[in-house]
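Hi P.,

Sorry for the delay on this. The queue was packed all week, but I finally got your sequence through. Input first:
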Amino acid sequence: MSALPTSSREWHLVARPHGWPEASDFALRETPVTAPGEGRVLVRNLHFSVDPYMRGRMNDVKSYTPPFKLDHPMDGGAVGEVVASNAEGFAVGDHVLHGLGWREYADVPAKHAVKVDGSVAPLSAYLGVLGMPGLTAYAGLFEVASFKEGDAVFVSGAAGAVGSQVGQMAKIKGASRVIGSAGSDEKVKLLVEEYGFDAAFNYKNGPVRDQLAEAAPDGIDVYFDNVGGEHLEAAISSLNVHGRATICGMIAQYNATEPTPGPRNLALVIGKRLRLQGILVGDHADLQPQFVQDVAGWIASGELKYRETKVEGIENGYDAFVGLLRGENTGKMIVSLDA
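Then the structure:
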């Protein structure tokens, strides 16, 4: 066995951002590496995930997941190679998925590590299409939104890791029409030409309500919300009677410093008998085996396509995260350390 590394670089949150995160809110620090204790494995991270929900964890507020601690390493999804094991069932060379990202080496409790197979899909796919974002899309569409064949579906943030899968899954399962919104003409083209959406629009090109009404003249039955704000208001206007909305994210307001107004047309929820329901992926772990089976099959058959935006090098972790919040990614945003 080769000698263990003596140190590891890791990203710490050093100040709580007010509005948009600044570089001065973060520090890349070097910490010593030791051999793993009983029941633990030392993992060399190959890829780690940056996700919109992490912005909320930078605030010191009570939420569904604890805030990041100041002057401690941040965490999040990561996939890597075991370089030392003190746990039964894990050997040096195994690839594992775990929750201690934002660092080069992770000392992981074996009970929180899951072996993954790089022959089924590239390892980075376990952070996106076959990982938490993919399961979010799958559970949010099929379980929370009660999607059924023939539904018309609208997805905001449709070129992102979650949204791009929601639209494709809806098409695979027989949606009558799938519409997406994105923040650039290039992404709109990708949605229609590569992901098979029936229509898509650039929300920066005009009022969302008008563009959605034009793209969905017969209304929509399901709305998958990754954005909130103007998009949610527009979707409420377009939803048909007994429409359902899965509220997954509200990236439009994550960096707001003042309270943001809610939709002005909420009264329509009554007459249309709409259902608006939030989703946390952790509530749907029971779907994981079926999800992996279905999505791996759709990838193999070519029915489901995915993109990743990879930023190389741990030193670029902050830039990758802020780029994600600005919409600079297409598909899953990943920091790759696989050098």
